[in-house]
Amino acid sequence: MSETSPKxxxxxxxxxxxxxxxxxxxxxxxxxxLSSNENPYPPLPGVLESVTGAALSFNRxxxxxxxxxxxxxxxxxxxxxxxxATGTGSVGVAQQLIQSTxxxxxxxxxxxxxxxxxxxxxxxxxATSVQVPLTSGEVHDLDAMAAAITDRTRLIFVCxxxxxxxxxxxxxxLERFLDRVPSDVLVVLDEAYREFVRDVDVxxxxxxxxxxxxxxxLRTFSKAYGLAxxxxxxAIAHEPVAAALRKTAVPFGVSQLAQDAAVASLRAEDxxxxxxxxLVCERNRVVESLRGQGWTVPDTQANFVWLxxxxxxxxxxxxxxxxxxxxxxxxxxxxxxxxxxDEANDIFLKVTEGFRKEL
Length: 359
Description:
globular
């Protein structure tokens, strides 16, 4: 019998591997992980209690409809239940969106550099990525993105604030862009870092969803809410899109622990706002310190900062690791550094100060 391998889809060849933030080395000199945009705070009040209660039912499947969480989200955002869908983090919902809209011969537009999962989930579907370079200010070039639309375009991601640069597009320019997008092309406003936005001109995507049936908003509990390890996100979209997301969801993908923890987190909003406010103040301190050292730092509306280092990127990341913090390098481009504990940020700033003198 001849030995042949099972036939796999040709689209899987050459798919880039998602690179998670490097963890702190166990037992090594690295003490702080600033590479994954995680929240440094423990779970919000009520979350551990809800998770402990859910743990007693590990032998049962979770509520596949996420009933409690869906009701909570409908009340929180003032939207119909039929306009909601959940998934395994916002990236899981993003993959469902592409599965629902694009396949071989279709195109998906997004800025680059942006969230590194976009090219992966696009190629998995068999669709073609259309990457539009950021402006010199590290912001989405919405005019160029609009010009890139063809009759093959099915979906456009606008990551706002953008990962990894932290920059955000503002209301007027986003509205002009949406006016140029054909009504049969889905625009996904990926707002994983929405809670950290302080620029009043950066819109809440839900405003646009209410007026435009081709706008979908992605949110997650992984960042501000501190539930990165439980994998729960959601989309707000008009009924045809939301229904497609529910069809393409992995059955029982969102665990009962995640559902209950998300509900408890939504009910602890006062504490959430306090924590986010503290992180934003620390973000401002880090940005001001970097600029004071002579670095060019884009205005960030997320819980991280971006330094464009080009060929020095890997060297800088190594220097940070030697000092006791892990950052997220994008070789040849720059580093993304999460705002973490005060002590971690201080170590990072000490490294930048020394590195700047070597440039």
